[in-house]
Design goal:
The chain folds into two domains: 2-209, 2-enoyl-CoA Hydratase, Chain A, domain 1, CATH 3.90.226; 213-259. It is built from twelve helices and ten strands. Helix 10 (213-226) runs antiparallel to helix 11. The strands form two sheets. It has a seven-stranded mixed beta sheet with strand order 1-2-3-4-5-7-10, with helices on both faces. The protein has helices at residues 34-49, 71-75, 84-97, 99-104, 120-127, 154-162, 164-173, 179-185, 197-209, 213-226, 231-246, 249-259; strands spanning 2-3, 10-15, 18-23, 55-60, 109-113, 116-118, 130-134, 138-140, 177-178, 190-192.
Length: 269
């Protein structure tokens, strides 16, 4: 089912629980535009509570994921009419509603791409729970090469994934990281043949969509709070969520399925 996003810069389609959001400015390597960011924020806000959405896939059109901010538009003076305080406030809201939402929403999020994930696009890919890269894909912080410091949470996400030393290297040098290097660093979960990207991504998304949505919600909150959290607090939260999950119909049905040696069917109850 195709979903209207209000702009051609972002395409959306829902297929049996899998919401695919496609960044769609291939002539600019899917560089972020204001309409794209606003539509992405709106669709993510809807998806967070829509029961028909079980997993979100973020990808890009035309052989790239996202080149980050539209540097060409910047050179043409786009956004120059805003004062600095207004610009900062608008971007803070945008970041929380996009990369922040991808990371914190109680449903699995998955990024998949060929070509480049750079700058803010790199940050949005890292914000997702899992990543699938084609063999020809790469990632780069890119910011230092255009005199930027970095945005959309990339410094935080990268430091959590690879540690401070490697994160500093990647931000200060802005080198390309190939798919193979990303896999070795733990920055991606899968590297697949380029012509199999859509197939492999949908197989993983389908597996997540068939999983237990209530348990996923608790798992994501546990994992997010574990980052920088105190061990005792995290353990207390884990047991609260674990016992609550044990009261769900999904858990009870899964136990019966285990005993009966069949695959469970999770309905989010």
């Amino acid at each position: 089912m195709t979903i209207d996003t209000g702009t051609n810069d972002l395409l959306a389609a829902l297929d049996d629980g899998v919401l695919t959001l496609t960044l769609n400015r291939p002539d600019r390597r899917n560089a972020l535009s204001r309409p794209m960011l606003e539509a992405l924020a709106n669709r993510l806000a809807w998806a967070e509570t829509a029961p028909e959405v079980r997993v979100i896939v973020l990808t890009g059109a035309g052989g790239a994921f996202c080149a980050g901010g539209d540097v060409k538009a910047m050179s043409e003076g786009a956004g120059a009419d805003l004062g600095i305080d207004a610009a900062i406030h608008r971007q803070r809201l945008s970041q929380r509603a996009t990369s922040g939402k991808l990371h914190q929403m109680p449903k699995p999020t998955l990024a998949a791409w060929t070509g480049a994930a750079a700058g803010a696009g790199f940050a949005m890919a890292l914000a997702c729970d899992m990543r699938v890269m084609a063999e020809d894909a790469f990632m780069t912080t890119a910011f230092a090469k255009v005199g930027f410091a970095g945005d959309y949470g990339g410094t935080w996400f990268l430091t959590q994934l690879v540690g401070p030393a490697k994160a500093r290297e990647m931000y200060l040098l802005s080198d390309r990281v190939t798919a193979a290097e990303a896999l070795a660093l733990g920055l991606t979960n899968r590297v697949v043949p380029t012509d199999k990207l859509a197939e492999e991504t949908m197989a993983l998304a389908r597996r997540l969509a068939d999983g237990p949505p209530i348990a996923y919600r608790y798992i994501k909150e546990n994992l997010n709070r574990a980052i920088g959290g105190e061990l005792g607090d995290c353990m207390d939260l884990e047991v609260t969520h674990h016992v609550h999950a044990g009261q769900t119909e999904d858990h009870k049905n899964a136990v019966r399925a285990f005993v009966e040696k069949r695959a469970p069917k999770f309905e989010g109850r």
